[in-house]
Amino acid sequence: MKSQTAFFSRLWKGFAMGVAAIIPGISGGTIAFLLGIYDEIIEAINQLRHQFKQSSTILLPIGLGVVLAIVALTIPMGLAFESFPLPTVSLFAGLILGGLPLLAKKATIKKDVFSITTILVPAFIAISLGVFSVVGELDATAILTEETILPKFSLILIGALGVSAFIVPGISGSMLLLSLGFYQPILGSLERILEALPSPFQARNDLLNFVFLGLGLLVGFVLISALMGYLLKHHPRAVYLAVFGFVAGSLFSVFFNFEIIPAYDSLNGFQGVLSGITLMGGMMLSYRFNTHYAS
User: Fold this and answer.
1) Domain count along the chain
2) Which of 26, 288, 18, 64 is nearest to 169 (CA)?
3) Can you give 259-292 as a three-state secondary structure string?
4) Which residues have CB under 8 Å from 19's CB, separation 6+?
5) What's the predicted TM-score (pTM) here?
6) Which DSSP symbol is given to 200?
7) What's residue 152's pLDDT?
8) What is the 8-class DSSP label of residue 42?
9) Which of 90, 102, 184, 276 is least enclosed by beta carbons within 10 angstroms?
């Protein structure tokens, strides 16, 4: 009975993390931290080889909850992007903005060379991601829809970046995907798989996308969790300073990447006003959530 209670407790906590993972601006790692299971997850990942059964008992229900949440939200999020791309992106930007005060508090920002450098370098990298996707014409939709294999190897890196949502408190993996222009195309690929059920192999190309993404997730989980376990133990302030810089810089890339640029061609007064409303609404919602629940 106790084991069943623990299973369902971890299941719903995983579901909450999954909701956070698919909504840019909300960190799955922060949700895990607030729910009191962050340390447990990191320890289970790092001990998976040595204590496989015990670690699996922890990670399996959490992972199942994450998957259930992603499946439940994929189609609604896809419809939002298709019908109202800029208001949807503005909502996510607001969620990101609302979380910055919490990150600033954790980072204890000071007017010294170390703080400024540790913030500006990751911010520059984040801005460069959006610029590169436009200048380099990084067409994420083409990578996921075409059946050419070689470009799909880039999805391994994308998967490793995406998994950071569960490992780095305060940073959203889906926000990184949004900045690079991969968020909506990945949602579309998953949506096509769900629509092909109960014969998912009709969407063979989309299944292949998730094979490459899955490899990236696996590599990211192992490498990033080990790295974060060390850094958060020995250099926590530097981690949060870097995360603050990266998140702040990503705000630029959210509005300037290869996938979102075409949406500006159809921008009208209604879309502009709605984008402003969703931006403010997302910022207020995120700020109130963080100030209420963050310790």
Assistant:
1) 1
2) 26
3) CCHHHHHHCCHHHHHHHHHHHHHHHHHHHHHHHH
4) 26, 31, 69, 73
5) 0.67
6) G
7) 92
8) H
9) 276
